[in-house]
Design goal:
This protein has 285 residues and is mainly α. The protein has one domain. Helix content is 74%, strand content 1%. It has a two-stranded antiparallel ribbon with strand order 1-2. α8 runs antiparallel to α12. The relative contact order is 0.13.
Length: 285
C-alpha cells in the first residue's frame, strides 16, 4: 500500500474542482478573464506610446559590460515573460495565500492540520484561479509575435532554459507570498503586510537596466541580491533574446544566482511557515 498521498493526484483533484467551481458561474468567470486581459492590453498600449519616444531601454554605452539594451520588441518579450510569471502565481497561489488569514481567524486551519498531507501544500494549492490563466495565453502569444518581429528563432535549449527560469521566478514569488501570509499567525490580521508583496513585486516588472544612478543602483542591488525579485523576469527574458554563450559577466552571474535565490527562497519560506505553525493555537483551545 502507498505510504502517503499522491501529491500529483491531489493537485489534479484541486484543479478539477476549481474548474467546476469556476464553470458554475460562467458569467463571472468570463468577466474576470476579460477584465484581467483588458488590463494587460492597456499596459501594452502604454509601452507602445513609450517606444514612440525612445528606441530602446538601457544604454549600453553607459552600462558597459553589465548592460543590455531592450528595443521595442525585446521589451515586449520581457513583458510577455512578466505576464507568464504573474499569471501562474495568481492562478496557483494568490487566492490561497489571501485566504490563509481567514482560515486562522475562523479556525478552519484546524481541519487542514488534521489532514494526512503536507499543510503548506494543502494551503497553497487547494484552489486554482483559472481565470488568471488568460494572461498566460496572452503572454505566450505576445512572445511569439515579438520573436517574429525581431526575426529571431530561439534554439530548443533557449526555450527549455526559459521555461526552467520561469519556474524559478514563480517559485521566488511564491516563497515571498507564502512567507508574508504565514505572518498572519503572529499578527492576526496582516493585510497591510500582505499588500507589501504587491509593492515589492512591482520592481520585477521592469528591466534592471532602468535602476541606475545615485538611487537606482542601490535599489537594483537590493532587489537582486537581498530580495531577488529582479531576477524573476530579467533572467528568463534574456534567454529568449540573447545567445546561450555568455557575453558579459552578468550573463553568467544572473542565471547561477537565480538558482541559488530560488533554493534559498523556498527553504526560507518553508522555515517561516513551519515556525508560524508552531505558534498557532487551535480555535478550540
Amino acid at each position: 500500500m502507498p505510504s502517503g498521498p499522491s501529491y500529483l493526484r491531489v493537485f489534479l483533484t484541486f484543479a478539477r474542482n476549481s474548474l467546476v467551481r469556476n464553470m458554475t458561474f460562467r458569467g463571472n468567470f468570463l468577466i474576470e478573464t476579460f477584465s484581467s486581459m483588458s488590463w494587460v492590453f492597456m499596459n501594452l498600449g502604454f509601452y507602445i506610446l513609450v517606444f514612440q519616444h525612445t528606441p530602446r531601454i538601457g544604454d549600453v554605452s553607459n552600462w558597459g559590460e553589465y548592460s543590455f539594451a531592450w528595443g521595442k520588441y525585446e521589451f515586449f518579450l520581457f513583458l510577455s515573460t512578466t505576464l507568464m510569471v504573474n499569471s501562474l502565481v495568481q492562478a496557483l497561489f494568490m487566492e490561497n495565500a489571501s485566504e490563509f488569514g481567514e482560515m486562522i481567524r475562523t479556525g478552519t486551519l484546524d481541519f487542514a492540520l488534521l489532514k494526512p498531507i503536507d499543510t503548506q501544500f494543502l494551503i497553497s494549492l487547494q484552489r486554482i484561479d483559472w481565470s488568471s490563466l488568460g494572461n498566460l495565453v496572452v503572454g505566450i502569444g505576445l512572445a511569439v509575435f515579438s520573436l517574429h518581429k525581431i526575426g529571431w528563432v530561439p534554439s530548443v535549449w533557449q526555450v527549455l532554459l526559459f521555461m526552467l527560469f520561469v519556474i524559478c521566478g514563480v517559485a521566488i514569488m511564491y516563497s515571498l507570498m507564502i512567507a508574508l501570509a504565514a505572518t498572519s499567525i503572529w499578527l492576526g490580521r496582516n493585510q497591510s503586510l500582505y499588500n507589501f508583496w504587491f509593492y515589492i513585486t512591482n520592481f520585477s516588472r521592469y528591466p534592471m537596466e532602468i535602476y541606475r544612478g545615485t538611487y537606482g543602483t542601490p535599489l537594483r542591488m537590493f532587489f537582486t541580491f537581498i530580495i531577488p525579485v529582479l531576477v524573476v523576469v530579467n533572467v528568463p527574458a534574456r534567454f529568449l533574446v540573447r545567445p546561450l554563450v555568455p557575453q558579459t559577466p552578468m550573463d553568467l552571474l544572473l542565471p547561477v544566482f537565480a538558482f541559488v535565490a530560488t533554493v534559498a527562497s523556498l527553504v526560507g519560506s518553508r522555515w517561516v511557515f513551519n515556525r508560524s505553525l508552531l505558534s498557532y493555537r487551535s480555535a478550540s483551545s
